[in-house]
Amino acid sequence: MARTGTKPRAQYRCSECAHLTAKWVGRCPECGTWGSVEEVTVLTPVTGSRPGHCAVAPSSPAVPISSIAPGATRHFPTGVGELDRVLGGGVVPGSVTLLAGDPGVGKSTLLLEVAHRWARAGRRALYLSGEESAGQIRMRAERTRCTHDEVYLAAESDLHTALAHIDAVRPSLVVVDSVQTMSTTEADGVPGGVTQVRAVTTALTMAAKTSGVAMILVGHVTKDGAIAGPRSLEHLVDVVLHFEGDRTSTLRMVRGVKNRFGAADEVGCFLLHDNGIECVSDPSGLFRDQRPIPVSGTAITVTVDGKRPLIGEVQALVGSPTGGTPRRAVSGIDASRAAMITAVLEKRAGLQLGTKDVYLSTVGGMRLTDPSADLAVALAIASSCADLPVPPAAVAIGEVGLAGDLRRVTGMDRRLAEAARLGFTVAVVPPGVATVPAGIRAVPADNILAALQVLRRISDNTANTAGFTGRT
């Protein structure tokens, strides 16, 4: 007689790589992650003699993709322009967005501002907090002037009670701060554990899809900067955003990592103040030091973060060592890449840097990871070594190779357009740039030595610029 149904059996699965083992182990044998293996129930089908007898009729028939209205789901602006830029225009009804960042970076302040502007547009928002009481949130709302009658607050860490609040308030936007503090009795483990975070996120995602409410989840990060919890957490949600910022600076940046409804490489800039958070629609001025007269050791470049071109300033200081060993210190620039550029300058341009201290830094807390900043780093070092300023109206864009050659970078048209918009008139670039916007002149250079010679020719102080290169 044929048997039907399923028979449960226990197995153990790694939450990071989904590797299955027959027994529990402390460390996954596949990916080597500690504490990620947990028990799961696997249903083993026991089939009968008739094939396909376990098929279940679908609740709704499949339809052609062309029959689905393209405007059925669209973006609704949050009112915070820089966040809408990263989201692709706003939040989508029924979507789940995960915003992760370091403690104290301003996640709660930003999302309270989002809820306030959402309510000002005539829509209802619900702020669920498992970390603060309603009174604490009220105090921050008064400080940041984010009080509105259509913003509802609830201090709740139980998942089922939170879902009941959503059903009772019936908002169009829900903020959960944070997903690691929520817990449910239907899953094992402690709040914030792998099992609890996955169960809570799955339930909140299901609630968002069935009710059509836009949901924003706050996520914690580990000391390495990764989102805390299982890796599957990022797969469950629709949008993943990282909120970044240095405690010593007011600059904050929201960076898109995953976006099912738009581009995933956008970045938004903010300034965090005591009385709230402010959008910065034109952040190029934040990364450039304003001074009345040019000084040596500085060079301007145009980097691209996501799709946004940003003006950045590199500062260098070359001096005699106070001790026996020369020092190399960098801030905001990759140390290994700075060491490579220093070696190229010594070998290909004849600069004597092996016995000198070299200090490199960026302005405004900017991090230059784009290879297009290589040429600006090289010119800043050469300018400080010769104690001669780079022309203030010039920008330098290009990647430096080990042979001293200059290589083209992507998005050159956008970079030059941004430089021309901010008043720069000369751009030292690698050869082969086809499109040059009006108002700026592109001067090509094949290698780093040629770039230094170009700057010598266009410098305002042409009489004393021979010190740019050791071979001149």
UniProtKB/TrEMBL annotation:
Where does the motif RadA KNRFG motif lie?
258-262
SUPFAM superfamilies attached to this UniProt entry: P-loop containing nucleoside triphosphate hydrolases, Ribosomal protein S5 domain 2-like
Q: Does the keyword Ribonucleoprotein apply?
A: no
Q: Which SMART domains match?
A: AAA
Summarize where ATP binds, as residue positions. G101, D102, P103, G104, V105, G106, K107, S108
Residues of the region (Lon-protease-like) are 357-472
One example GO MF annotation? hydrolase activity
Any matching Pfam family: Zn_ribbon_LapB
List the CDD domains hit by this protein, alphabetically. RadA_SMS_N (cd01121)
Annotated GO biological processes are: recombinational repair
**Domain (RecA family profile) ranges:** 72-221
Q: What is this protein's function?
A: Plays a role in repairing double-strand DNA breaks, probably involving stabilizing or processing branched DNA or blocked replication forks.
**Member of which family?**
Belongs to the RecA family. RadA subfamily.
Q: What protein name is recorded for this chain?
A: DNA repair protein RadA
Q: What is the lineage of its organism?
A: Bacteria, Bacillati, Actinomycetota, Actinomycetes, Mycobacteriales
Gene encoding this polypeptide? radA
